[in-house]
């Protein structure tokens, strides 16, 4: 996958991205919202091994670049036949809360719908209000809350909010259509 809108690009993560992904994944400040306040404790070799298993048909990890520099990551995984589960992290704090997430999600979701995906699903931590606001602005439907459904790295019970969007519901922040 290689998607571009102005100075923002989404591309497949490759082995040479393993050092950057490893830094982000091992940084507790980046990974806390995903339940890992101490980071993942992974190695570049482990990350490169995961990247080598990615396939267009089943799912990929993606790099989000701004002006040619990596600022975050995205992913998609095909689930339940023709649904896609997605995720996004703007990992560079200086690039957060500037609208890039909405644009990147618009690009990815539209590309998945263009490939025949019938619906896109995701979840987020109940306390991640910023993400919930972004998903609502894109047209996602809030399916419900799963209370105390998982424990984070330090053993705290966490709750998740499930979302879904179907073709025709996307509010496209690129202005290029749905």
UniProtKB/TrEMBL annotation:
<dbReference type="InterPro" id="IPR000182">
    <property type="entry name" value="GNAT_dom"/>
</dbReference>
<feature type="domain" description="N-acetyltransferase">
    <location>
        <begin position="8"/>
        <end position="164"/>
    </location>
</feature>
<protein>
    <submittedName>
        <fullName>GNAT family N-acetyltransferase</fullName>
    </submittedName>
</protein>
<dbReference type="InterPro" id="IPR016181">
    <property type="entry name" value="Acyl_CoA_acyltransferase"/>
</dbReference>
<dbReference type="GO" id="GO:0016747">
    <property type="term" value="F:acyltransferase activity, transferring groups other than amino-acyl groups"/>
</dbReference>
<dbReference type="Pfam" id="PF13302">
    <property type="entry name" value="Acetyltransf_3"/>
</dbReference>
């Amino acid at each position: 996958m290689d998607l571009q809108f102005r100075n923002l690009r989404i591309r497949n993560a490759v082995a040479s991205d393993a050092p950057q992904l490893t830094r982000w994944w091992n940084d507790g400040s980046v990974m806390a919202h995903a339940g890992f306040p101490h980071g993942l404790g992974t190695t570049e070799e482990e990350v490169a091994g995961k990247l080598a298993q990615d396939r267009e048909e089943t799912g990929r990890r993606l790099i989000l670049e701004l002006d040619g520099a990596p600022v975050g990551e995205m992913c998609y995984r095909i689930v339940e036949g023709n649904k896609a589960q997605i995720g996004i992290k703007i990992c560079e704090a200086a690039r957060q809360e500037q609208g890039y997430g909405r644009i990147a999600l618009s690009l990815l979701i539209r590309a998945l719908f263009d490939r025949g995906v019938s619906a896109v699903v995701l979840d987020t931590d109940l306390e991640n209000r910023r993400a919930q606001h972004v998903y609502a602005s894109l047209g996602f439907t809030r399916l419900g809350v799963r209370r105390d459904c998982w424990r984070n790295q330090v053993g705290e019970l966490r709750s998740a909010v499930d979302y879904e969007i179907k073709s025709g519901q996307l509010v496209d922040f690129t202005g290029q259509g749905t």
